[in-house]
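Retry 2 of 3 after timeout on previous attempt. Resubmitting structure tokens to design endpoint.
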């Protein structure tokens, strides 16, 4: 069985590839490099810079890959538009519609954007209910053999759009030996940035920054508060070894990949995790549900700064949860079970 993981989203396919290889699957990743994060790629889809020359390079590169891409038994895409817009329909017909395909619902696709607004709170976007894109993407999704949501919001959106999905499969993470940081320093509270344009404040960064200002004044002798982004995946991995608490995203009902990485490292993780989402693996999840308000961030982060025993207990629970549910080998077996049904 030859499987192609098409495009990347926060490391999901890069982590999944490790588990699939360990389970004996012949697997490759095709990406544009995913910008500053610099994930490794087996099949390069072209330069992703935003200029005319790079756009032409992507178009020519992807056209040249048609024969190679058609050799895979299963193509799994994590992007609603994995190919250059000028040849997207052609590539769909010549590649995606000629093989077994799976769509991993993990990004801001038109179906997600359309239905997420029905929730009490949700990430801001530059474009929401675009009927034309919504209908077009629904039609595109109807050609996929399986749809796999990676978290609750995507299952909700796909279900609202009328699709039957597989059960939510947790984010895959390679579980490695813990690298413990020095206990003599200040407690480090970290918010990972994934966008520089805060006009579309996807995670609630502006709220978190205000909360960090209050917390800095309150705990300047015992804790430090860091908002940091634009790191490669390797840099991010190394940096997060030395943090204790991770405040990830506020505008969510479940958690994302950054939070999952934090769990795997035994961190106390704050994110959305509403009661409505608490089924399956979510019912055992140790993530601290935090609302999109300055007051709630301050209150809940303060509690774990002041209570070292609770902090240590939750840290151990985080690591155990990641071992049970996010281990890439366990997650890969669930994907492989679905592949074998196709």
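Retry 2 succeeded. Sequence:
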């Amino acid at each position: 069985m030859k499987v192609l993981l098409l495009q990347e989203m926060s490391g999901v396919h890069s982590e999944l590839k490790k588990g699939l290889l360990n389970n004996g699957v012949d697997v490759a990743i095709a990406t544009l490099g995913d910008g500053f994060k610099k994930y490794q790629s087996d099949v390069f889809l072209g330069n992703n810079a935003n200029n005319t020359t790079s756009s032409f390079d992507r178009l020519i590169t992807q056209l040249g890959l048609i024969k190679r891409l058609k050799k895979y038994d299963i193509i799994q895409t994590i992007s609603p538009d994995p190919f250059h817009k000028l040849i997207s329909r052609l590539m769909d017909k010549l590649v995606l519609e000629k093989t077994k395909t799976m769509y991993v619902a993990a990004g801001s696709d038109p179906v997600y954007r359309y239905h997420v607004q029905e929730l009490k709170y949700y990430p801001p976007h530059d474009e929401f209910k675009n009927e034309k894109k919504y209908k077009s993407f629904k039609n595109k999704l109807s050609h996929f053999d399986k749809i796999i949501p990676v978290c609750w919001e995507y299952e909700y959106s796909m279900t609202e759009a009328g699709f039957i999905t597989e059960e939510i499969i947790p984010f895959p993470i390679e579980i490695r030996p813990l690298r413990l940081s020095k206990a003599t320093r200040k407690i480090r509270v970290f918010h990972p940035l994934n966008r520089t344009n805060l006009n579309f404040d996807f995670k609630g960064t502006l709220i978190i920054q205000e909360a960090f200002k209050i917390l800095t004044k309150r705990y300047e002798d015992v804790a430090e508060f860091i908002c940091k982004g634009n790191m490669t995946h390797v840099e991010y991995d190394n940096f997060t070894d030395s943090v204790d608490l991770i405040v990830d995203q506020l505008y969510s009902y479940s958690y994302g990949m950054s939070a999952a990485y934090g769990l795997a490292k035994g961190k106390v993780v704050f994110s959305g995790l509403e009661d409505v989402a608490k089924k399956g693996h979510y019912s055992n999840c140790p993530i601290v549900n935090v609302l999109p308000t300055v007051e709630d961030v301050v209150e809940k982060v303060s509690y774990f700064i002041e209570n070292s025993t609770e902090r240590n207990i939750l840290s151990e629970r985080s690591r155990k949860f990641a071992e049970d549910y996010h281990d890439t080998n366990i997650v890969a077996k669930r994907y492989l079970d679905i592949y074998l049904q196709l």
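Attempt log closed. The CA atoms of residues 229 and 236 lie 8 Å apart.
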